[in-house]
Amino acid sequence: MAIKIALAGNPNCGKTTLFNALTGSNQFVGNWPGVTVEKKEGKLKGNKEVVIMDLPGIYSLSPYTLEEVVARNYLINERPDAILNIVDGTNIERNLYLSTQLMELGIPMVMAVNMIDILEKTGDKIHIDKLCKKLGCEVVEISALKGTGIQKAADRVIELAKQKQSMKLVHAFAPEVEARIEQVIDLIGNDIPEEQKRFFAIKLIEKDDKIADQMKQVPDIQNIISLMEKEFDDDTESIITNERYDYISSIINECCTKNKEKKLTTSDKIDRIVTNRWFALPIFAAVMFLVYYVSVTTVGSWATDWANDGVFGEGWNLFGINSLHIKGVPEYIEAGLNAIGCADWLRSLIIDGIVAGVGAILGFVPQMLVLFIFLAFLEACGYMARVAFIMDRIFRKFGLSGKSFIPMLIGSGCGVPGIMASRTIENDRDRKMTIMTTTFIPCSAKMPIIALIAGALFGGAWWVAPSAYFVGVAAIICSGIILKKTKMFAGDPAPFVMELPAYHMPTVSNVLRSMWERGWSFIKKAGTIILLSTIILWFLMSFGWVDGSFGMLEAEQLDSSILASLGNVLAPIFKPLGWGEWKMAVAAVTGLIAKENVVGTFGILFGFGEVAEDGAEIWGMLAGSLTAVAAYSFLVFNLLCAPCFAAMGAIKREMNNKKWFWFAIGYQTILAYVVALCVYQIGTLLSVGTFGVGTVVALLLIIGFIYLLVRPYQESKTLKVNVASVK
Amino acid sequence: MGTIVVGVVLLGIVGLIIRSIVRDKKQGKSLQCGCDCKHCGGHCH
Question: Mind telling me how many Å the CA of A167 is from chain B's nearest CA?
Fold first, then answer.
């Protein structure tokens, strides 16, 4: 029979790193608290009989958060054979609070003191032998990151699990408290195993209302609680917490020696600059500028040119040597199709439809991979946790809390998990506003649009890609200000508490793993939903009515296609934004299926033109059909408007209300339209001097927008408290 | 003949894609990021 080992510990203490090392798994390890929300299972490397369960990081076994409920229910109901309690050695006092509760479950436990390498650097010392005696369980030193001591920890916990002996508590609370606990234990029925009775008794005394769900018979201990509260002049939850911290203090006094000549750690020194009141924001802006500049404009641009013009274009020279010319993918496919005598229409579907559409998107994969490497590095080294802290100060002024930044951070990969990450925000108003604004941050699917506009329309100008990111941030901040002044969202943002982990150099494998996971999902999407979209687009583009008869069209008859007819219906809506041509309207609409489709649609529509007309470059033809201002307006609209269908589905699920869903989608689309209109109209006025009705409308919209931003905030005159949500 | 072969292969690929999309959808996986969104707490990548 398999041995079940549970990994339990505080958030960001290294559980997932240890889980990966023990199981050979490749779960993402982030250097911010709360990477693991669901439990994950894996088998021990070299011993498939041992099942390791990575529980989400928790601070206690009280059901304050979803993670604590998940972890506690697993430990109580599934009863693993042993617990490997990972303790962050650099924060041992706080970590021991959970340990004292885990020990009460009666499950055999081994404590692994992690980050021992950092302790050595700081000069602090934990006396393991004394800690063993004080806790009454085995303690081992490990460094999960460097892999030291983890085999010993695994061996010891397996040995303990095989012995099947319940954990025996060696500590006791104050005699008065112990007497009350004993009284409650006597009242608990036999449905609770003997070794768990103390845990249940303490939870009942703490007035933990969710513990009753785990019991068949719940004893009435109201008298005992009243007596205790009278005796200690405090509520029972605080009494138990104080007792635990008294015990922890005695452990710290005996088992830990702090380095008296305490110097600032490297993390502290970095934080003095990075989270500095004045420098924090400029540093963040500079970091994100660098990330987008390098990803899209320099290294990424070079790599994408090679992929677009070479691999998915006319071929490329290996090592730059002319004689080592390698044909592009379309050439190989076309040659193959010609060789087997494939019909022209099918060849057109494959080359002008699938290859042009999917190839246009895959051509941007190198840029995406460069961006993903940067984002993975920033997340894993600990900087992104600081950004949430920095943004809290800014967001708070505009009605959001730093907690809202975490979904936005995740949303830079994909909007769907970003929207779902908003579940961790308890305040309903903050959560709804976060859901509405998360997709303003450019996700990876919008990256090809940014790169395309930056490269084709602005000649790779340095400022275009970073500006797209900051347009997203500005939209969030402005939305926060405007919406907080409405009755729906009025109220103070919830307080934001987040532990700042120590900086560390991420492992190459972790960064590459994260890059690959994100990159692979992008490639997979191109090969599935995008491929299907390109086939449908090709049909709509290749068939139509000419001279009253329906049939397949010649390349120069593109304007008579079904797609053109549909696009022409929508195009007038976008005319005031500067891109009223049907091709642009179709691209913006197909972006609702998946944002990559915008580029895929251009690939098909302009690629189709290339074959038919003068052989000009696809992106060159696109550039010829738009002015720079109109192109930026198109970019802004696609960045801010309603996200793809999958993200809309996530918004609908998380809002759980049709009205709120349509309000969110409507707000995003109207905001996108207004901003894109203002960009085009004012941009045209400044660059060409054109003044018309559109300019007047744009000026009026700007005045209205400024009014919404600066109008006084009206505090609610009545205090409404939802008692059910407070409980 | 070539048209039939290529057409059948293409239809097969489209069929497989639709099957994988339907299967992922039934399993609660996101079509966009491939993550297990049905059980997701939002911390996937």
Answer: 32
